[in-house]
Amino acid sequence: MKDKKGAKDAKLNDRKLAKLRAEKMLKKELKHELKEAEATISAKKVENFKTEILTKVFYIYFKVLKYPKPSKFFGVAMNGILK
Q1: DSSP secondary-structure letter at 70?
Q2: pLDDT (tens digit per residue) in 17-47
């Protein structure tokens, strides 16, 4: 009777250990996915900032070019647009 009970306990312990290992692996995978998601969000933010800066720079360039009197910034604006 003790052998059967001991075997039953061993099976239960094995199942518990397997379950704990599976949970640990799942947590590790979730942490990894979370880090990737955060990096993606950061990349999107950087891309949005770059787009906003570029829009403002072009706005300034074209504002300088539209100004009726040529100014000392005209050459700089032309070089900036050419790049």
Answers
A1: -
A2: 888 888 999 899 988 888 888 877 777 888 8
Name the nearest CA neighbour of 62 among 80, 42, 44: 80
Q: What angle do CA 79, 76, 48 make, to 5 degrees?
A: 75
80: nearest Cα among 54, 48, 50: 54
- Cα separation, 72 vs 19, in Å, equals 73
Among residues 50, 54, 73, 53, the alpha carbon closest in space to that of 63 is found at: 73
Are 80 and 57 in contact by the 8 Å Cβ rule? The answer is: yes
Rounded Cα distance between 19 and 21, Å, is 5
Q: What are phi and psi of 34, to 5 degrees?
A: -65, -45
**Cα–Cα distance, 83 to 14 (Å, whole number):** 66
pLDDT of residue 50: 93
How far is residue 21's CA from residue 12's CA, in Å, rounded to a whole number? Answer: 14
